[in-house]
Specification:
Blueprint lengths: L3 H17 L28 H12 L11 E13 L8 E10 L4 E10 L8 E7 L20
Antiparallel strand pairs: 1-2, 2-3, 3-4
Length: 151
């Protein structure tokens, strides 16, 4: 009587052995494989309400002393500063700028980046946000330079 383990091992060897000597090369790919243009993106727009909520959530996660107890109340004049994709990465980033109204009535320049595949479990998108002039520990460099890199 054959055991199930023997049967599984035999089937695995039958399937894998014929493929073992074949390596996949770029030349094996069809010549018409589509390439994404620089304009391609499945990221939401800078002015999208879900993005504004994600930015507010990211800023609210900071310790209360970081922004002196102030919270983000509203995002005004969101502007798309363009898409960014580095050759060594397939992750697309949409750079945005806006004006942030804080709970004490003050306004500050807000820079944020919508990043592809950076949501929970690498699904969807995520945001990185910085209030220029309020980044005490220069997490995003002076004046949020690392987020507004190409702005």
């Amino acid at each position: 009587m054959r055991t199930p383990i023997f049967t599984i091992a035999f089937l695995s060897a039958t399937i894998v052995v014929p493929l073992a000597g074949h390596e996949l090369h770029a030349a094996d790919m069809p010549a018409n494989t589509p390439q994404l243009s620089k304009e391609y993106s499945n990221l939401p727009a800078c002015a999208d309400e879900s993005v504004a909520r994600a930015v507010a959530r990211q800023i609210s996660r900071a310790d209360t002393f970081y922004y002196n107890g102030r919270t983000l109340q509203q995002v005004y004049h969101p502007a798309d500063q363009g898409l960014e994709r580095y050759p060594e990465s397939s992750i697309t980033r949409r750079n945005c700028s806006a004006t942030a109204l804080l709970s004490d009535g003050s306004t500050y320049p807000l820079f944020y980046r919508i990043v592809e595949d950076q949501g929970i479990f690498g699904i969807s998108w995520g945001v990185e946000a910085c209030l220029s002039g309020l980044d005490k520990f220069h997490v995003y460099n002076a004046a949020c330079r690392s987020i507004r890199r190409n702005m």
